[in-house]
Amino acid sequence: MLLLSSAGLDHLLDNPPAAAFEAVECCGRLPLALPIAGGMIRELEEVWEAELVRMLKAELSGELSFEKSIVNVSLRCVEPSQRAGVEALFRCLGCFAEDETVPAAALELLAPFIGQQVAVASLSPGTVQKWLASLLKACLLAGSGAKGVSVHDLVCDVMVMRAEAEEGGMVGLQREVLRVFLAAYDSTNDGPLRDFFVRSLRHHVAYSQQPGVLLHQDELLMGVLSHTSSVICARSVAGIGLEQLKKAIDTCEGEGLWWEAAQL
């Protein structure tokens, strides 16, 4: 049974408890939902047989989709003292493309920003790794803390939904991530990390565009487009899109903003 094996309870496979069968039905027998429920069992430990089904039924009775409800229950199973940080990291991970493997070192760079989200002025070393381990244990991420993690598209949808509910929404979050990664690109000699910044830049730029703000008035995106690295410039153009860039140039020329048009 996938639920019990995901929870590390292989010794119960020959004679599963009734709560396991009921939990499987609550999860709709979905292959993605069952490992997440297995992660809940690991968090709940000795009380899972009494608590898991109750928590699943309570969440599933709401208006959210089945998949989002499962993820929400999983996050509520995280140790209360760690939950705020784990949820803040969870939201941040929604900034990355669904098929992107995110190195742990990149997430560590976001530690100051994540700390602001949970009102912590300075995070102690290893805190982000601890939160990352909680998400891996809950089967909300794939991969490992050492080699990097990736996000299933269904789970990513929940990350984005939660980020949108925060002040600034996903655009604000993407812009903060973009600022951190640009600064890190300019200051680090770590080849693999710089390669990751370049690889993920198109996605971050695409989702950092502010509705209603003209491109030539956006200091952050103009800074990316005029970066000293031709690779960064090229990836930025790909993120904004040639058509969007041409429209921005036409707008500047139409208003007589020749310098801005030349920069674009």
Short recap of the structure:
The longest helix has 19 residues. The chain is 65% helix and 2% strand.
Task: Give structural notes.
The structure is a single chain. The chain has 264 residues and is mostly helical. It has a domain of 75 residues. The chain has 16 helices and 2 strands. A two-stranded antiparallel sheet has the order 1-2. A hairpin with a 3-residue loop joins strand 1 and strand 2. Helix 4 packs across helix 5. The radius of gyration is 22 Å and the shape is elongated. The protein starts with a helix and ends with a helix. The mean pLDDT is 85.
Kindly state the number of beta strands: 2
Query: What is the CA-based Rg, rounded?
Result: 22 Å
Determine the mean pLDDT.
85
Derived structural class: mainly alpha
Strand content: under 5%
Low-confidence stretches: none
User: The biggest beta sheet, please?
Assistant: 2 strands, antiparallel
N→C terminal distance: 57 Å
Major β-sheet strand ordering: 1-2
